[in-house]
Amino acid sequence: xxxxxRIREKLRWSNLYTFSCLRPNVLEDGxxxxxxxxxxxxxxxxxxRVHQKKPLNYPSNYISTTKYNIITFxxxxxxxxxxxxxxxYFLMAAILSLTxxxxxxxxxxxAPLAFVVGLSMAKEALEDWRRFMQDMKVNSRKVSIHxxxxxxxxxxxxxxxxxxxVRVEKDQFFTADLLLLSSSYDDGICYxxxxxxxxxxxxxxxxxxxxxxxxVDDLAFKNFTAKIRCEDPNPNLxxxxxxxxxxxxxxxxxxxxxxxxxxxxxxxxYVYGVVIFTGPDSKVMQNSTKSPSKRSTIERxxxxxxxxxxxxxxxxxxxxxxxFAVKTxxxxxxxxxxxxxxxxxxxxxxxxxxxxxxHLVTALILYGYLIPISLYVSIEVVKVLQATFINQxxxxxxxxxxxxxxxxxxxxxxxxxxxxxxxxxxxxTLTCNQMDFFKCSIAGVSYGMGSSEVEIxxxxxxxxxxxxxxxxxxxxxxxxxxxxxxxxxxxxNFGVSEIELxxxxxxxxxxxxxxxxxxxxxEDSRLMGGNWSKEPNADAxxxxxxxxxxxxxxxPEPNEETGSFNYEAESPDExxxxxxxxxxxxxxxxxxxxSVFIRERYSSSGHPIEREFKVLNLLDxxxxxKRMSVIVQDEDGQILLLxxxxxxxxxxxxxxxxxxxEESTSRHLNEYGETGLRTLALAYRKLKESEYSxxxxxxxxxxxxxxxxxxxxxxxxxxxxxxxxxxVGATAVEDKLQKGVPQCIDKLAQAGLKIxxxxxxxxxxxxxxGFACSLLRQCMKQICIxxxxxxxxxxxxxxxxxxFLITDQAVKENILMQLINGLQMIxxxxxxHAAFALVIDGKTLSYALEExxxxxxxxLAVNCASVICCRVSPKQKALVTxxxxxxxxxxxxxxxxxxxxxxxxxxxxxxxxxxxxxxxQAVMASDFSIAxxxxxxxxxxxxxxxxxxxxxxxxxYFFYKNIAFGLTLxxxxxxxxxxxxxxxxxxxxxxxxxxxxSLPVISLGVFEQDVSSEVCLQFPALYQQGPRNVFFDWYRIxxxxxxxxxxxLIVFFLNLNxxxxxxxxxxxxxxxxxxxxxxxxxCIIWAVNCxxxxxxxxxxWIQHLFVWGSICTWYLFLLLYGLSSPIISGNSFQILVEALxxxxxxxxxxxxxxxxxxxxxxxxxxxxxxxxxxxHHVIQEIKYYKKDTEDQHMWTRERSxxxxxxxxxxxxxxxxxxxxxxxxxxxxxxxxxxxTIIPPS
Length: 1241
Known about the structure:
Rossmann fold, Calcium-transporting ATPase, cytoplasmic domain N, 9-stranded mixed beta sheet
């Protein structure tokens, strides 16, 4: 159906905007020169089929973030599996098992390997299938496309082709990179939100070419044809060069006409565009990288352990083969019963070296139990179950969106417990992109009664510290009544209970259940309900509110439900100001091309009055100007310049008479900034008509200028007007952080994690957010690294290149000097409480990341308490992440919610995607996804800590039990003349790893808890056991191996010495090899299962079932195996019933060996817990004796100790506030003491 008309067609924004809506005069400037490589793309508009054929053959709009496809799955997945050293070894062993030298049957070697590899590949396939399904969600989105004859219909995104004309509706994402042809506004303007690309919250203004404006509805595209010649696909988000050939004319295209995929249409009903780049060619996909194969630190270290065990395996195999060769040469000729004259090469006394080589292969297979084949499959099973628990954790389920946490890959579970540095996006990750009007300063008076969390927490914790230092205060002389009274008073006011940061942070949300107005959190009766008119400075307040209601570019839209208006503003700040103005009684309700209409609810007449203000000029906001002004004429004919902007900019432009409130306003701004609020200063200027007319003629002249000097002239003319201002006041808005962000950051900081913020937002916004979430605080020393001013470029074109090179080198030297000075400043700082923050922008970062500067940059960054990188591109985010990862050698975690975060998410050791309301690009590229940043606390501090410790203990135990078992084979072979004979039945060996010891170790990896989840959160310092690698360092690994060696010696030699000449049966017969083998195996089963029971801290019925059930399973198997036919059971026929069970020595040896094997570990554990306990040992003991409930004071003291010393986060901020308050209090005590001691004259 053709579109009948346009909404708001009378608004021609291009006539209002000064800086944002420049449309180049293409006839004057001419088209771009597109010669040479990199500019070969040709797009035939409205002819998509042309691009599917050669020579163009452009890709479709289908995207994929999967690791595999149908063709590559088998080769890539098999490569991934056999990249593991152990699997490669078992593959060779399986091949060799087909030869005569194998001591076991081929099936016993091939079947376990096929099972292990097959299960791992199935897990990989399942995880990649989930990624594929999420890709399909994006690819299946619908968009309206021109099908021909002026008819539009909906098609999935994946079927969009280059050259298609599409119609995108308001609040929809752009399906591909488009050239804007026209919009619902008369002059082709549209608003675009690029938050998903660059993190910017402010809307961008795009404007179509003049020539395509007549394409006003669906029917206009019936016969539309044009050709676009432009640059080839590239990752640069901010540049575009191309020409449009239309109606026999050529027009230049620049970035202001390009709509990028994954950005969103806002404040505009619809736009028409033609597709230029699709799918993998789009700029956002050009910025992404292929899904990398990530391996955890523990898994990589496990390879080195496998290398060590393989070396041990080769060593004992060489010893065995040499021993066998010696025996074959010197002793076998005398063993007539072996018929050495008829033997093969395997046992040829005349060729002992060859026999030794064959035996080496036999030994390598025989001792293969040193390397646990079931380790990998057990880890896979454990990790999948761990991931299931993460997915089903209700504490990480977001009720608002219905999104649970999701482990998209289970390979990195334990890596969550070893994170050292978190690199976070800002917009949509830390913030929810909502501004609330919180406080204001008008005419030197501060309004707004709300208290920040920092102030509340500091007051309460101060009271607690007072009670802690009660003994100190008791030493104050009793005659100092005033000081003691003050102390008692503060104690009674604040109470003495410990400050619980979680409670403080959430208390604000919970104390008031009254419905809140979105964008307005202001509380002060002096300004509400028209009470402002009774204030002493009512005229200034009136002007303040009018500035809020008039100085903006927003559009009001009626809200039928509430009867008021919603405001579509370029930035959330503007929206908050308009909501505040409405609540104060100044409702902006209508805009025309030339006027703004305000409904003033509280007038002197007592009735609402509708006022019209003519908009004469609009000097819009830009990141360079840091201010916005509007020139209006009121109903009395008075011309006013109304200005809002950064306080540093506004204060510099005040007149001498306009600085009356500067000192008090500046003090208020500092107070607001200290509590993390975003501030702007408001000012005005009255203009005479003659003065304005002269300026306006200059302004029009500058605005209509064509050429490179236009922007400079406009800036110069604007500066002429934006001076001699009179300060009215300042605003303070709260950039709404996502729920629980300050608490989460505080807990992560207490856990010893470093947090970097990488954002595409401007520096001021990033710094404000740093204050809001306590990454920055007022007394923290900021090191801002910026580029020097390079605006003074040569006018002579011939010198341009030389000047560029000189300037570039000078900039690098200047940045290097700043980096060195910053590092020197930190080294010379003597105050132990001093904290430094590094702030750097994207332009400077591009130099800092170069090879010759990056190490100095990293050295400075790691010595700072917090790091904020602003104005960074997606590629720079990935490069910074790589620098931290490779430069520090520690585990990095990247978290973000937009397509601009994909690069760093994939580059980091662990990538976390926020599954919020924006696109799913970040989630699809991530390893884990959560709905809110606050869930990161539980994901790391609880699940990360558990998973790391479980996997580490599980792997150490696996090597212990396999060494304890495998070395007994070597001892027996040495004892039997290196014959290659195994003391155990083949079935025993097959079942050892697969059934008899597998379930207990899986239960250890899935259910083990050193402490509960609540304790993990209460004692965040426990997390540092992961980054310090306490449970998987070489000391602990070799300790477990030594334990395995000890157990193997005890099992073999105790059994051998006891059974060697000891009567076994009632008739006095000694035990045969089958009985000795079964007894030794029983001892091993008991020893290793008792060992894992001692290792576990947390028992459920499942652990009891698996541990003791495994032992029972061994006896059940032995019974059933013995009852089977002798053809199957061989020498083990009726072994339990007839041989072992009736023999008391069998049971006594089992008990003796099991106790002897576990005695050293029990002694070590007892000694450690008694004399050198670890953190979790202390907590376990407190919990066991219920001291956490019976002795709250001790529990509180232990909790306060269990925090890493940190200079960021809510706790650090509160501590800084307390130091400040204590200093003031100490001064007060001192003065009171002096007054008391000096006698009255």
